[in-house]
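Narrative summary of target 7.
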Amino acid sequence: MKKLNLLILLLLIITSTRGLSQVVTDTIKKDSTRIIRPVLNDNFYRKPPPVKLKYSLAKQVPLPEIEKKLPSCWGKKNILGFDISEIAFVNWSAGGTSSISGLLKGDFNRTYEKKLVKWVNELSIRYGMNKQDGIEIRKTDDAFRFNSTFGHRQDAESNWFHSAKLNFNTQLTNGYKYPNKETPISRLFAPAYMFLGVGAENTTKSKSRVFYLSPFTYKATLVWDQELADKGAFGVEKAIYDADGNLIRKGKRSKNELGFLITNQYKKEIYKNVVFVNSLSLYSDYINNFGNVDVDCDLGLNLVVNQYVKANIGTRILYDDDIKNKTEVAGVQVTEGPKTQIKQVLGVGITYAF
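Modeled conformation, tokenized:
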């Protein structure tokens, strides 16, 4: 009987233990879920933020700012060239004179273009020499020309500009009427010509043609050599002498005029590597002998061999009523009336653009 009671008691204990363990297990599961969820939401696994130091020995170095370079409104073009021609004779039965000629030239352009404004600056320099057997070195070309044109147009589609133009032309060294090398007929700034005026300019999109018209242009003829000014060279008022040849009044070194000016520049490739270039300038004074037109015309063909070797054929025609022709008569220099001046050029040379 005691054994039976003991067995029943043991079964009751086992049954109660299983129920209690199930309750404990369910409780742990609920509590675990309840605990893990807030732990995850509190970023338990993230690294703690670094501790901020109160003092630091590190030096702060500012990083350089990257600046965006805007495209420049200035354009440039530089061309240097040297033309040479040579002929030599050794025991040549037909006869002839050996000679060599050289021409140094430079063209420089600076152009500013922005929206409706255009400013073109051009500088052109020419200097040539020639040497023949038995004859001293002689000058063949000498020119210094500066042109500046400032223009403004009403809209970006228009080819017409309201323009102001400045031209300045002179030479660098003395000029002579060969074979006379004792008496110069021209010097530096004697003459020098300056044109300053306002008008309208028409330019094609390709800039192959530039036409300029100015109804009001001031022209100054400068003769800064007093000896030439006393002779009345290049149209300035000459000196006044008395009957005994004593100087009463020196010649004026400048002459001022006001008139109209028309210029035209044209450039076109008429055949492959053959470019035709024309420059024409017409000027007439309102006050002194209006209708008498001063003409300055350049005609040329540029033959392109390659990037560096070029040939050119050119003719320049000048007529100015104020320039009197000079000639030699029995060893004496005589001044004649104005005549048409013509210069022809044929050269082959090297050019370098940068």
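Residues 274 and 308 are 15 Å apart (CA to CA).
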